[in-house]
Amino acid sequence: MRLSDPRLSEPRPLGSGLHSRFALCALLCAATAWGQWGGELRLALRSEPRSLHPALVESAPELTFRDLTGGMLVRINRVTQELQPELAVSWTTEASGRTIVFHLRNDVCFSDGAPFTADDVAYTMQVLMDPALHSPTGDAFRSGSGQLKTEVRDPYTVAIVFPEPVAGAARLFDQVAILSRRSPQKETAVLGPFRLAEHKPGTYLLLTRNPNYWKTEHGRRLPYLDSVRLEIQQNREIELVRFERGDLHLISNVDPEMFDRIAAGGKAWARDIGPTLEGELLWFNMSPSAPLPDFEKRWFASRNFRLAISHAIRREDLCRVVYRGHAQPGIGPFSPANRFWFNQKLKPHEFDLKLAGQLLAADGFHKNGETLLDSAGHAVEFSVITNSGNPSRERAAALIQQDLAALGIRLNIVTLDFPALIQRISQSLQYETCLLGLVNIDLDPDGQMNVWLSSSANHAWNPNQKTPATPWEAEMDRLMRAQASALDPARRKALFDRVQEIVWQEAPMLYLVNTDALEVASPALRNLAPSVLRPRLLWNIERLYFDKRN
Amino acid sequence: MRQAAAIFLVAIFLVLLLADVVAPYSFSRQFRDIPNAPPTRGHLLGTDALGRDRLSRLFYGARVSILLAPAAALVSVLLALALALVAAVTGPWWERMILSGADLCLSLPWFFLLLAARALLPLNTAAVTAALVTFGLLGVLGWAGPARVMVASVRRHLQSDFVLLAHSYGSGPARMAMVHLAPNLLPLLAAQFLIATPSYLLAEANLGLLGLGIPEPVPSWGNLLRELENVSAIAANPWVLAPAFLLILVVACFHLLVSADKQVV
């Protein structure tokens, strides 16, 4: 309270008894700058993490859990976007970029007391690259056709040898949580600021301070917070009510409607951080093994059909009506927010019903009254699945439904709980189209290897291909591998520009909007350093603290 | 009061049945330039987040739900009545079995059955089919609560003089159940029906989270009521309470009619 008193900044004569007051204030200032220890941060996950294994991160809940518990060799500072050392004090590249050598800290222990050594890094890479595990994080390391190798040079030096030179290889390790080879607790022994203390499936995960966390501040081990409680809360309205009641302290990626309301209320910390790298997109199930009728598979395999759908969608309306202006029309894998990697030549697919009609006619589609029929006379009707409990997404689906009705297409909207949706899109493939947001966690295209490689489990429209199903997917595989190996940034940029062009031309995934990062937090939470990169408010979790005067 | 309630209900039913005529717009028409608009002459209850006319959606949504939710409630209470009568005429062993079945039914996590039901349904299910499946499931699964109440009531009736008299006249089990016990359970049945109907309206909206329920763009009373989850927005947009007010009015009118019937009985 006194620190905010403007009188304290007024000039006063010395020796007036204020010395002691000033000293006390300085002390309080220092205490505030250092942070205050203790407290529990509570936030909600929108679904249960499908796995707590740090190598099996597929969606936002697993990502949040990993970011709070995992220790990485290096970390991208989400504000400066620079790479900074963490468990590795330094790193060098050898063999023209094929090898990266990490020099590790020698005074770090896992949460269970097991010492951290180069052996653990080697073990982590072995787990990531295990083909039986299907680790999405591991996909980012599969740049070449050969095997990735690890050499332990001494207990605190480890070299990762890629089959081909990898540009910016160190950045990939921002997503790799190190596992313990020796610890009996295996992947539950962690190097991050928090460790799992309690897990009640479907209800909450309680993370408590890692007593051996290596970072310190003023002689004390971080984090400032005692614990973090991750509550499973699918319904965003309830999440908002709980935030307003003070039960939850932070909501990341808030719905625009909620954000406007909270910001207007003026009681919470609320920021529109600006356009993110993430977007809402709709993709078609093009897997040959999908349990769909053959005529539907032919629709989705047709480039003209996919482009016609794209041109029939009014993206400006999605931004304005659904996202209340907190979004931009989507273009491709990267938004213009990624200034270096975004392909400036590309523009959003324009709303053009006439062009859409022409594209459909070219494939033999024709209208019978208000219904669109394919060349064999099947009425064009398909479903879009999306996750329930996300009003913006449900509204976007409703807008698209009406847009497609203008072409004579009947779109059925099906909302599913998140695990059921993931099961359908990744395992049973029992869906036609899907409306979802893909989490983009890196500025570098290497972070999207797991999406664009046709062999990847996250190649949404046709995952786990043994060989590329189409020539353009084969070209994308080649380009992605080539850009990952090229050391010249301009060459990499040219290669990835071509990938973006292919995605734009072939439209396997329709980029609808790029949303702004809308974040809200308790006004008592300090040291927040918001970023458009995930985890937006939690990336410096070890330094967040509650101002107990608030 | 009873007459006023009856007139009101008839009027409501007429308006809802004639929704195609009386609704100002189609329930799915989106006025994208005026989302979340307050009430105006053109849109008496304003528009929703997609610019759809709230009044039109209320007419259509209430029409769907006002037919199906009471039907599902009726299925539940009739099942409960049938089981209570079976318990009454077949003896204590069957009564124990039925009550145990009810306890089991109440304690089972039906969430998984509903997930399985969603998995079995094709994704391109027509809105009518989805609505029938949803309310059908609610009706069939909702018997346990009313059954416990009715079995307890039947047990009390079995001690009463009119049952003793019926026995002395040689009434068989079927006659005892249908002629002597069932009419005495009707007020209870009506009460259970009134309790179940609004809860099924809301249950239908919640089933939307599992991919069941009535899909977009078809409105239902339940999914209109879901807007009220947004508690903090209600003060700024009180007209979103219209579906809740209408629901309260309809249920209150039903109560008035039933309580009047009870006095006659």
Give a short synopsis of this structure.
The complex is a heterodimer of chains A (550) and B (265). Helices cover 30% and strands 22% of the residues of chain A. Chain A has 550 residues and is of the alpha+beta class.
Sheet having the most strands of chain A: 7 strands, mixed
Biggest interface reads: A-B, 37 and 25 residues
Q: What is the helix/strand order of chain B?
A: HHHHHHHHHHHH
Structural class of chain B: mainly alpha
Number of strands of chain B: 0
Beta fraction of chain B: under 5%
Termini Cα gap of chain B:
18 Å
Spatial separation of the terminal alpha carbons of chain A: 9 Å
Description:
Chain A is of the alpha+beta class and 550 residues long. Chain A has 16 helices and 23 strands. In chain A, strands 13, 14, 15, 18, 19, 20 and 21 form a 7-stranded mixed β-sheet that branches. Chain A has a 4-stranded mixed β-sheet with strand order 1-12-9-8, with helices on one face. A 4-stranded antiparallel β-sheet of chain A has the order 4-5-7-6, covered by helices on one side. In chain A, a hairpin with a 2-residue loop joins β6 and β7. In chain A, α9 packs antiparallel against α11 and α15 packs antiparallel against α16. The relative contact order of chain A is 0.16. Chain B is mainly alpha-helical and 265 residues long. Chain B is 71% helix and 0% strand. Chain B is elongated, with a radius of gyration of 22 Å.
Write a concise keyword list for the protein shown above.
heterodimer; A: 550 residues; alpha+beta; 7-stranded mixed β-sheet; 4-stranded mixed β-sheet; 16 helices; globular; disordered N terminus; B: 265 residues; mainly alpha; 12 helices; 71% helix; elongated
